Amino acid sequence: GSGMFVILDGTVTVEWRGGRVELGPGDFFGELTLLAPGGTRIARVRAASPVKCVAIARDDALALLESEPSVTLAMLREVARRFASALPDS
Questions:
Q1: CA quadruple 73, 77, 19, 10: dihedral positive or negative?
Q2: Phi and psi (nearest 5°) for 60?
Q3: By C-alpha distance, which of 35, 32, 36 is closest to 16?
Q4: Can you point out the beta strands (E) in 1-90?
Q5: What is the pLDDT, as a whole number, of residue 39?
Q6: N or C: which end of the chain has fewer CB within 10 A?
Q7: φ, ψ for residue 29 (rounded to 5)?
Q8: Cα torsion at 46, 44, 35, 27 (round to 10°)?
């Protein structure tokens, strides 16, 4: 099943149409798949080094986002930052 992942150790590269971003310990991925209807895969994640992750089941992650607006807001800010950092400099 789908869920969200938090990186404990190592680095991953997240690639999607139009961009890529490197993530490391403390970062998360899988949040877009979590929120997209039908669990559509939007990005591809590749390990750039050996990685250890914690998986958060979809239902648990959604319950957390619904009960903790501050967590949801922090996540949105991070997602927006990633997309902005992947845009070419104008």
A1: negative
A2: -65, -45
A3: 32
A4: 3-9, 12-16, 19-23, 28-29, 44-47, 52-57
A5: 57
A6: C
A7: -150, 165
A8: 30
Cα distance between residue 65 and residue 70, in whole Å = 8
Amino acid at 70: S
Residue 84 CA from chain centroid, whole number = 14
Q: Per the structure block, which two tokens stand in for 14?
A: 């997240």
- Report CA 64 to chain centroid distance, whole Å: 15
Q: What is the spatial distance between Cα 76 and Cα 71, in angstroms, rounded to a whole number?
A: 9
Which residues make Cβ contacts (< 8 Å) with residue 3, sequence separation at least 6?
A: 30, 34, 55, 56, 57, 58, 60, 61
Counting as low any pLDDT under 50, the low residues of the chain are: none
Largest distance between two CA atoms of the chain: 39
Would you say the pTM of this structure is higher than 0.85? no
